[in-house]
Amino acid sequence: MTIPERLGLPHAGYGVGLRNVHFAHILNHNPAVDWFEIISENYMDSHGPPRYVLDQIAERYPVVMHGVSLSIGSSDPLDMDYLRKLRSLADSVGSLWVSDHVCWTGIAGLNAHDLLPVPFTEATLRHVIERIRIVQDVLERPLVLENPSTYVTFARSTMTEAEFLTRMATEADCGLLLDVNNVYVSSVNHDLDPQEFIRNLPHERVVQFHLAGHTSYGTHCIDTHDSEVIDPVWDLYRLAHELTGGASTLLEWDAKIPPFPVVHQEVLKAVDRINHRLTPAETMDETPPRPENGFARPDEGTATVPQPATMISAEVE
Ligand SMILES: [Fe+2]
Questions:
Q1: Global confidence as pTM
Q2: Structurally, how many domains does the chain consist of?
Q3: How remote is the CA of residue 178 from the centroid of ligand 1, in Å?
Q4: Mean pLDDT, residues 167-191 taken together
Q5: How far apart are CA 161 and CA 153, in angstroms?
Q6: Which residues contact 28 (CB under 8 A, 6 or more apart)?
Q7: How many A from CA of 185 to the centre of ligand 1?
Q8: Are 168 and 129 in contact (CB under 8 A)?
């Protein structure tokens, strides 16, 4: 069976994450941004001012819902009340698709308010695939799942993240949200090759890209979403664009948020970056700088899935 590119979903162009600090600017100036991504949970239970603004924006722009609480990897039962609310909001704003992360966010009813990594095992794969099918049945639209930034790996993992995502997306028949900045952050933290990761994904299933800034601490990176996209991430984006044929692109900026025109201009850099041709001195054929943390490269150790030497606690919201 031939899978239509991006599961038949549209290329929405170049969008930005909708944040409250920009509400007035957007409503007053109608900026020429292609689309907005919203954090689903900020609007699911709200019928106050934010929801009123969203309804107006959804009349003017395409909207995509991006969630942080699906917890597709948790061993807790799926929250059917949450899924019904998600479906209701998606119907209301006409969400082109619904996305979340390959992670778990809580256990035993407790919410950790963080995107926690899953072990890449056969058992996790079967568990996640079964749950994706249920979610897609409830939503009656494709679920698109994102690779999170991670700060630890699991000794029990038996496959790479790219293999896990490939088998997950193929067997569950869902889409992928390729966060290029997260690929960079995780590759630095785990001393992996970000280009190899991107080359090994099922490119026809990549529905959307995320771009963002992060903070480098020398030994590791934290996914802070508080600055411009750095050049090595733009290089990875260009590679991903070439391999996928292009997909809807979204800039996330969640801390130290500048005025809307600055955020919008940052995502529009993508157009130039796609067409930018590399000079030999540029970094396309290089892996990220080796972190000074003593991690072994994959070919220096015996494990097929490299493990971090130390635990790095996540500080991102
Ligand atoms: Fe992201």
A1: 0.87
A2: 1
A3: 8
A4: 98
A5: 10
A6: none
A7: 11
A8: yes
At 285 the pLDDT is: 46
The rounded Å distance from CA 14 to ligand 1 centre is: 15
**Residue 316, domain member (yes or no):** no
For residue 311, being part of any structural domain is answered with: no
Asked if residue 309 is part of any domain, the answer here is no
| DSSP reduced 3-state for 20 | helix
The answer to the question of residue 307 being in a domain is no
CATH label of the domain that carries residue 109: 3.20.20.150
In the DSSP assignment, the letter for residue 226 is -
Give the residue from 48, 44, 38, 49 showing the smallest Cα distance to 16: 38
Contact 243, 203 (CB under 8 A): yes
Centre of ligand 1 from the C-alpha of residue 148, in Å? 7
Give start and end residues of each alpha helix (H) in the chain.
Answer: 23-29, 41-44, 49-60, 80-93, 122-139, 161-172, 180-190, 194-199, 231-244, 260-275
- Residues with CB under 5 Å of ion ligand 1 are 179, 210
C-alpha 305 – ligand 1 centre gap (Å): 23
What end-to-end distance do the CA atoms of the chain give, in Å? 40
Domain range enclosing 162: 5-300
Rounded Cα gap, residues 266 and 278, in angstroms: 20
Q: How many CA atoms lie within 13 A of 167 on its CB side?
A: 16
CA dihedral over 2, 169, 136, 225, signed as positive or negative: negative
Strand-pair category, 143-146 with 175-179:
parallel
Please give the distance, rounded to the nearest whole angstrom, from the Cα atom of residue 182 to the centre of ligand 1: 7
pLDDT band at 193 (very low <50, low <70, confident <90, very high): very high
pLDDT band at 314 (very low <50, low <70, confident <90, very high): very low
d(CA 223, CA 207): 21
Q: What is the CA 289 to chain-centroid distance, rounded? A: 23
Ligand 1 centroid distance, CA of 300 (Å):
31
CA of 71 to the centre of ligand 1 (A): 15
- pLDDT tens digit sequence for 18-70: 999 999 999 999 999 999 999 999 999 888 999 999 999 999 999 999 999 99
